[in-house]
Amino acid sequence: MSIRVMVVDDHPMWREAVERDLTEAGLEVVATASDGREALARVPAARPDVVLLDLQIPAPDGVAVTAAIAEQLPQTRVLILSASGEQADVLAAVKAGATGYLVKSASREELLDAVRRVAEGDAVFTPGLAGLVLGEFQRETVETPLTERETEVLRMVAKGLSYRQIAERLVVSHRTVQNHVQNTLRKLQMHNRVELTRYAIEHGLDQA
Amino acid sequence: MSTPRAAGTGHSPAAVAVENRLFRALAVLRVVVLLNTVGLSIYRSDDFTRPGLGAACLAVMTTWTVLVIRACAEPRRRTPLVLGTDLVLALGVLLLSPVAKGEDFTSSLPGFWIVGALLSWSIHYRWRGGLVAGALLAAADLTLRQDVTQSDYGNAFLLVIAGPIVGFMSGSVQQMATEREVAERAAAMAAERARLARAVHDGVLQVLALVQRRGRELGGPAAELGDLAGQQERELRRLIRTQDDLTPATEGTLDLVAELTALESRYPVTVSTPGRPVEVPSATARELVAAVAACLDNVRAHVGPDAPAWVLLQAFSDRVELSVRDDGPGIPAGRLAEAAAEGRLGVTGSIRGRLADLGGTAVLTTGDFGTEWELVVPVGSGA
Q1: What ipTM, to 2 d.p.?
Q2: How far is A71 from chain B, CA to nearest CA, in Å?
Q3: Contact A136 B274 (CB under 8 A)
Q4: pLDDT score for B45
Q5: Distance to chain B for A207, nearest Cα, Å
Q6: Mean model confidence pLDDT for chain A
Q7: Which residues of A touch B202 (CB under 8 A)?
């Protein structure tokens, strides 16, 4: 069964190019959308495996769309594709539940590889994103700190090592490395939820 | 809306808001001093030689207090007429003291009630108004006295001194409020500009990324165009990142995130950092960036001009850690020792030296997996 993908981007040229690449590679583009509202309206019926999401789209923005999809369709993975690589936005999207991040200048092969990996549940990190996530865990208020091994793996990702290189260095399987990376993402998202809940309670929003 | 109010005071909405607050506080004070005067007059009603006149004065004071509080509640009604009447009444009642209480009166008829007029002049006309009102009230009080006692002089002196001081402070607070309002507006405008710029940049980046992509697929001359677009795309993205980092840093410090990210334009390097500024003393930042640049020069010289490298910055409460890594063949065993034996300190020596000067360490790991420098520098309270 081919991977079902939804492409959300407000630039038609870009949307078509990505759509063509995906289709040629044998993936199924089940829906497209040009803004956040359209995306959220179409995603429940389309039930894609992966949403390829541009962060800078007309409201609601990519971060809000990511949060809504993570909430409503836990089986659907979100892969962020951003042109500008705005650090704060990327981090916010990953905290909101995105499984991976890629800059738009990534090659066709990198994109296809990322979509396939995300569909399998893998976390797709760039070294830049790993650095951001590491930074989040180095704050002192983290409730669920990373294990030493997870920190070690994430640090290696941030230093530009591929999963294969990391597996070789640590003498573990490729799968184990993937699990560690996935765990760090899970913890980051969990931490985000804890923070949001605390914020809600402090501001009396839980009473509503 | 923005027609200039009260010439010379050039009131901004923030300054008016401050003045409104001060007048509200003054309203409370006016009531307190009025009650005080009325109470004392009743308690010491024997002091009055003409109780009828005294009672009439107190009635006028009470009425005026109510009127002036109402009038001053609104900025546009704080007119010279209202404030002038306020001061004239205060002076008038003061000057009637010997008539109502006899030539040898001790406490004046209005008592502390006159501070209402004094402070309204201070608040509205700033230090000059305070000085004028204070001087007039003090002069009136002193001219009535048959012999000026120590405490009479003290009261007069206080009036003259308090008027301008309160006026000056009122002016300063209003000025600060205005300045803050201007700064807030500027910040909001800058944020809006940045938001618009992001939208524009994003569009350009999209097109550049697309050209790069299609170019690569088409091959030939189009691939060259694609490469050019790719270079510009990276450059623009880096510019945006450094621009975003332009948060006002504390005096004497630099943001390592911005400084290191800037290296991406000079070297084929990927810089990973935390998502927030990492401020360290300027000298430390410059030395660290120079050390990282030296590492990257080394990569360029020994691995290749286009060899990729990765820099990772990690910030802890007591130290910053920097890693510079490449995927090259590593430094052959013995070469460093050889260089040292020949008396050449070389790049490794200079990197270690820089770090030692900062009180930190530089550790080199090398092998067939590549070369990695780990630079650690203590910062913050631990430094």
Answers
A1: 0.83
A2: 25
A3: yes
A4: 87
A5: 33
A6: 87
A7: 56, 83-84
CA angle, residues B59, B65, B67, in degrees to nearest 5: 105
Cα dihedral value B287, B291, B292, B297, nearest 10:
140
Tokens standing for B63? Answer: 């009425």
How is residue A194 written in tokens?
């804890």
Supply the CATH classification number for the domain B250-383.
3.30.565.10
Rounded Cα–Cα distance for residues B294 and B348 (Å): 9
Reading the block at residue A182, the tokens are: 């996935």
Eight-state DSSP code of residue A124: B
Q: With b meaning 16 or more CB within 10 Å and e meaning fewer, what string describes B51-85?
A: eeebeebbeebbebbeebbebbeeeeebeeebbeb
Provide the token pair at B176. Answer: 């600060």
pLDDT digits (tens, 9 = 90+) for A27-60: 999 999 999 999 999 999 999 999 999 988 888 8
> Would you kindly state where each structural domain of chain B is located, as residue ranges?
13-185, 250-383
The model carries a pTM of 0.64
Looking at residue B383, what is its pLDDT?
41
Considering only CB atoms, which chain B residues are within 8 Å of A134? 272, 274, 312, 314
pLDDT tens readout for residues B282-294: 889 999 999 999 8
Instruction: Give me the pLDDT at residue B164, please.
Output: 95
Q: Which residues lie across from B361 on neighbouring strands?
A: B376
Tokens encoding B198: 């992001």
The answer to whether the CB atoms of A84 and B234 lie below 8 A apart is: no
**Spatial separation of the C-alpha atoms in residues B276 and B254, rounded to whole Å:** 13
- The structure tokens listed for B48 are 């009055």
Q: Is the predicted pLDDT of residue A84 greater than 70, yes or no?
A: no
Domains of chain A in sequence order: 1-124 (3.40.50.2300), 125-208 (1.10.10.10)
A131 vs B274: CB contact, 8 Å cut-off?
yes
Beta partners for residue B269, in sequence order: B309
- Helix, strand, coil content of chain A in percent (nearest 5): 55, 15, 30
Q: What is the DSSP letter of A204?
A: T
Kindly state the tokens that stand for B284.
Answer: 């430390």
